[in-house]
Each structure stands twice: as C-alpha cells, then as structure tokens.
Amino acid sequence: MKVMIRKDSKGTLSAYVPKKDLEEPIVSIARPQMWGGLVTLANGWRLELPEMAADTALPITVEARRVAGGED
C-alpha cells in the first residue's frame, strides 16, 4: 500500500495512508533506522518499509506492506 512518511516541526514521524484516509504517529521503530524494517503506528498497525538510504529526505511516499498483528 502507498504510505507517506513525514516529520513535523517537532521531529515526530507520522505515516499517512491515503487509501484509508488514516494518519498516525510512528511510535516504534524495530531497527536503528526505519528503512527496511518494521514500524508501529499509534493505532497498532505494523508496517514493513522498503530499504532506502538513512538520509532519505522526508516527506516521501513509499510502497509499504502491512504486517499481521496490528489492529484493524
């Protein structure tokens, strides 16, 4: 699914899923960097993000995969 990752002026990362009209803060990153790993959103969804360079500029729209175990 398409997901836009952005960082606000306070440095908080969030994910916006246009298909669901859902925007939630990213509350957990499973690896030292989020690219190529799992992130958890405030609503419980877990998303697997693609591999990208650590210094990738935000905001960016990526193709992410929702991983089982998150809330609907």
TrEMBL record:
Pfam family, one: NifT
Name the UniProt record assigns to this protein: Nitrogen fixation protein NifT
InterPro entries to which the protein is assigned, alphabetical: NifT (IPR009727), NifT/FixU_barrel-like_dom_sf (IPR024044)
Native source organism of the sequence: Paraburkholderia lycopersici
UniProt-listed Gene3D superfamilies: NifT/FixU-like (2.40.50.240)
Higher taxonomy: Bacteria, Pseudomonadati, Pseudomonadota, Betaproteobacteria, Burkholderiales
Biological process according to GO: nitrogen fixation
